[in-house]
TrEMBL record:
Domain Mab-21-like HhH/H2TH-like: 4-58
Native source species: Mytilus galloprovincialis (Mediterranean mussel)
Protein name in the entry: Mab-21-like HhH/H2TH-like domain-containing protein
UniProt cross-references to Pfam families, sorted A to Z: Mab-21_C
Length: 370
């Protein structure tokens, strides 16, 4: 099966989509009882190989495996204990004191990668399994971009596009388990790009409801983050909970889109033409709510979300210039869409001043006003 796929696609970062494509191909072969020899097409390996009962059983097994995706391995004899041990973790948070928790919140992405590498290769503790599981969920945010090369190599037909949609959606749903809010916003952005504005708006509002004072922003590792009294109090109340549950329910990750991301709103595509970019989740949620209502032609709600977006910019407590510049750009784009070019230009100028290394689209957007 794998020989029918371009060998260049079988890269470590693309193994899962390739595996799923092979599984889908195998299901097709079983369903229609055809598996031709790679070098001798006249030889059909599946000719009269199964009776009706065995064929039905095998087809059912493969269908269930494909529906589970990569999680099908969790049900295998080899790996099932890993998942069971993880979710039966009874180690309380008291074993991971506040200092350790704050240290993890402030780690840069590069240091987190080293930590995850250590968790995978050198440690079998429950805490390490929890961290690895969380970031495995986060990796699902980027599946739509890594899988697009695989699916476009087959065909642009509707059935293949639908297969990609199901594939991407299933992984993004796994991605919502990475933290309290941002995974939902990634899924909402994906649905927005696919013009499902009503569903995107509902998920955005759901994410905003979960954005409460006790939530802990993971930050970028560039600035020191100290827990507030409320956050420490909630952590203390959850001291008997599993570490996995605490990190998943209280953490808010940075919203990250890769270069040429296919799930970022079209209105922000200029910011990912050369490199990845990051957003503070709260203003992004208000901006996404604005965009959904704009396309649904609900101007009153547009104004409401724009007002909230502007307030987050004024009250921004995250002292990272990229976040500030991107928030100003979102405000500017919103004003531009509703015909308020004067305010849009001022906001793009503000973003350009904060963008010391020209990492955003602020300068490009400003040039359109000259």
């Amino acid at each position: 099966m794998s020989e029918e796929t371009d060998p260049n696609l079988w890269r470590p970062d693309n193994t899962i989509p390739c595996f799923m494509a092979c599984l889908q191909r195998l299901l097709y072969c079983v369903r229609y009882s055809i598996l031709l020899h790679y070098f001798i097409p006249e030889n059909n390996f599946f000719h009269s190989r199964f009776n009706a009962t065995n064929k039905e059983k095998l087809e059912t097994i493969l269908t269930n495996l494909y529906a589970r995706g990569i999680n099908c391995f969790a049900y295998s004899v080899t790996l099932r204990d890993y998942q069971r041990q993880h979710y039966k973790d009874n180690h309380p948070l008291t074993q991971v004191n506040f200092t350790t928790f704050e240290l993890f919140i402030d780690l840069s992405n590069l240091k987190k990668m080293y930590l995850l590498y250590h968790c995978l290769h050198h440690s079998r503790t429950v805490a390490c399994k929890s961290l690895f599981t969380l970031y495995l969920s986060k990796s699902c945010w980027f599946v739509p971009d890594t899988s697009k090369h695989l699916f476009t190599s087959y065909s642009a037909e509707n059935k293949h596009q639908y297969s990609k949609y199901k594939h991407d959606l299933s992984h993004l749903i796994v991605g919502v388990h990475s933290d309290a809010v941002t995974g939902w916003l990634i899924l909402a952005s994906y649905l927005y790009v696919r013009k499902n504005y009503v569903a995107s708006l509902r998920l955005t509002n759901y994410a905003l409801q979960k954005y409460t004072d006790e939530k802990i922003f993971n930050g970028s590792g560039l600035t020191k983050y100290e827990l507030t009294f409320i956050q420490k109090h909630v952590l203390n109340l959850m001291k008997t909970e599993k570490l996995y549950s605490v990190l998943r329910s209280l953490r808010i990750e940075t919203l990250t889109f890769g270069p040429n991301s296919s799930i970022i709103p079209q209105e922000l595509q200029l910011d990912v033409t050369r490199m990845r970019t990051c957003y503070y989740p709260l203003p992004f949620a208000y901006f996404l709510g604005f965009l959904c209502n704009y396309h649904l032609q609900d101007i009153t709600s547009c104004r409401h979300y724009l007002k909230k977006l502007i307030l987050t910019k004024k009250n921004d407590s995250i002292h990272v210039s990229l976040f500030k510049a991107n928030t100003a750009i979102m405000c500017g784009v919103a004003h531009q869409l509703i015909g308020e070019a004067y305010f849009a230009k001022i906001l793009f100028q503000e973003a350009a001043m904060q963008d010391e290394f020209n990492c955003t689209s602020a300068a490009t957007r400003l040039s359109s006003f000259t």
